[in-house]
Design goal:
The protein is mainly alpha-helical. It has two helices and no strands. It binds zinc ion. This is CbtB-domain containing protein.
Length: 74
């Protein structure tokens, strides 16, 4: 059993990092911010006067996350 970890297909050169233009990153950054704010809203504020969804389903779902992150809950 003589299996080598080094691959013979590589030329041995150092791979250069791929340059990603800022314009290509902006939509993903905006998407991430919107998704994060939505998650932060549901974990931190989706209750009582600011509640968008009636019932306790959202509260029960994010309840442990609320306590973990220190948001006021009950
Ligand atoms: Zn609680």
């Amino acid at each position: 059993m003589s299996q080598s970890l080094s691959s013979s297909s590589h030329s041995g050169g150092i791979a250069a990092p791929v340059a990603i233009p800022i314009r290509a990153l902006v939509p993903w950054a905006v998407f991430t911010v919107v998704l994060s704010l939505l998650l932060l809203y549901f974990v931190g504020a989706e209750q009582g006067a600011t509640s968008l969804i009636s019932g306790h389903a959202v509260h029960e779902y994010v309840h442990d996350g609320r306590h973990l992150l220190g948001f006021p809950c009950h």
